[in-house]
Design brief:
291 residues, alpha+beta, Jelly Rolls, 4-stranded antiparallel sheet, 26% strand, elongated
């Protein structure tokens, strides 16, 4: 009886050559597996098994270690949905809406009005034109699709921010040191952020330097620091979903699957403000310690 082909041997020649060439160039095997899965032609499990087999073939020729380079994915951050109210610190956070796939959760009463006002007041006039990460070199660049203004609150800078950061860490079951600094965004009338992804693209040379500072962005918190008279919703165009800002609430969503593979269903944006001012604070949770 003929044995079935191994994962590597079952791949088309173009993929076998691609794996061997990239391993010879010392490319990161996990980035390679992510690229294979992102192509839509292979599952993550097949990609990892094929790369492991290729590494074993190279090891037999004395060109690579024999052990697998892959480890079990880190535990994902998560929101406890066993009850409709979640007790954290001195607050009862409300679970208002849940979409299971991709996971998107709207939480109420995450911040008090006083905390929202304190964060906004802390940033005062520090706002500058918002930027995006350049795909070619990772530099911060102004982009026509993001017309808001932004400000940052670094860790240890403000007591109110530290308190909220610990609350979010408790909510997400994820260490505070694995979170990026708060990034505030202020949107006036007509300002927007066109649909985009929060995850970092391992195939983008500009994003790789950011991935090296803490790994992938596994999850996003959007804290709504102001009410908006009209417009300014957070939209997920592929899902037909729009969440309107409510002061003190927070939107949570996972950016990857359990293998830390970017989820393309998480395309989202900030709709134009029609009337009023929208102020939010983003908190991105990384795989590892940020910085």
């Amino acid at each position: 009886m003929t044995s079935p082909p191994t994962p590597f041997a079952s791949l088309p020649a173009v993929w076998r050559d691609w794996i061997m060439e990239n391993l010879a160039r010392a490319c990161n095997p996990l980035d390679m597996a992510n690229s294979m899965a992102a192509s839509g032609q292979h599952s993550m499990a097949v990609a990892r098994a094929a790369i492991d087999e290729a590494l074993a073939l190279r090891a037999a020729e004395g060109q690579a270690p024999a052990a697998s380079v892959f480890v079990a994915p880190q535990q994902m951050p998560y929101i406890d949905l066993e009850r409709n109210l979640i007790a954290v610190q001195d607050r009862m956070v409300e679970v208002l809406f849940v979409l299971k796939q991709p996971q998107i959760i709207l939480l109420g009463n995450v911040l008090s009005d006083e905390e929202c006002d304190a964060i906004v007041a802390h940033c005062g006039t520090r706002y500058t034109r918002s930027t995006v990460t350049g795909e070619a070199d990772g530099a911060s660049v102004v982009h026509e699709g993001r017309t808001s203004e932004m400000a940052f609150i670094q860790r240890g800078e403000a007591e109110v921010a530290e308190r909220i950061e610990q609350r979010l860490a408790e909510l997400a079951h994820w260490p505070a040191e694995c979170g990026e600094p708060f990034q505030l965004q202020k949107y006036g009338v007509t300002q927007e952020y066109r649909p985009h992804y929060d995850w970092l693209d391992p195939d983008s040379s500009g994003h790789r330097s950011h991935l090296a500072r803490g790994g992938q962005r596994l999850a996003t918190f959007i804290l709504y620091l102001s009410d908006v008279e009209q417009g300014g919703g957070t939209v997920f165009p592929g899902l037909g979903l729009e969440v309107y800002p409510k002061k003190g609430s927070a939107l949570w969503f996972l950016n990857t699957d359990v293998n830390h593979q970017p989820d393309k269903q998480t395309l989202h944006g900030g709709a134009p403000v029609v009337s009023g001012t929208k102020i939010i604070a983003n908190k991105w949770l990384r795989q590892g310690r940020y910085g």
